């Protein structure tokens, strides 16, 4: 079984269409079809079946996709390991981060590493937890820094860094800032929130549902945390944001917290990476410095206003 055939199969399985896979790979459709038939001939079973205008994985195909992806990542890791050995401390660190940790923690870590080892290069991707875990599983990032999510303990190596709180916030002068608000009062206003696949959205939805209240009425759904305060400032919309983002000089400076214990989410900040026998030296160095810098950085909560 040739490695190239497995690589072609992974792209076909991911796109669900041989034509699109051929365009992506710069190969002809017959060549890709032939590569799949070679694998099927060797293992003695079908991997793909027609589905509409595309293809779908059989049960064996789903298993083969996981094996092909694992093999590709292993080859990529081996190549990087050889390069790291040749270059010593010089290397690349591919970091996936939530917006809050990217703004208040990563600058400290990256600037220190660049002082100590200027040959190390960083690739930083900012995103929501679901997108970042997918990137980690696909081998597109080495490590993810941000809030812990369900399944992290069983799926990854977890490094605990500190704690964070997520709170309801509104523009200064919002009607809820002029009275002692209850969680029921929050139902009267629209919200700016991330997608349902994001942990903070799931948590605030559950906070309402557990009290027999209707879920937040989402007027704007966005994964851009820096955009939320600007969307909310001229309106009566509410949002659910890290308390660290509120306060003078912060991304959420136009907002104030609507203080309610039942809508305050306490979450753990972690760094996670794949369970692997090999970790590039540059990534190991990043993790060590991250753990040193995280404690003081996460304890330094900025000044913020309560409604």
TrEMBL record:
One Pfam short name: HTH_1
Domain of life the protein comes from: Bacteria
GO terms under cellular component: cytosol
SUPFAM superfamilies per record: Periplasmic binding protein-like II, Winged helix' DNA-binding domain
Keywords: DNA-binding, Plasmid, Transcription, Transcription regulation
GO molecular function, one term: DNA-binding transcription factor activity
Start and end residues of each HTH lysR-type domain: 1-58
Family indicated by similarity: Belongs to the LysR transcriptional regulatory family.
Protein's UniProt name: Transcriptional regulator, LysR family
Organism: Sinorhizobium medicae (strain WSM419)
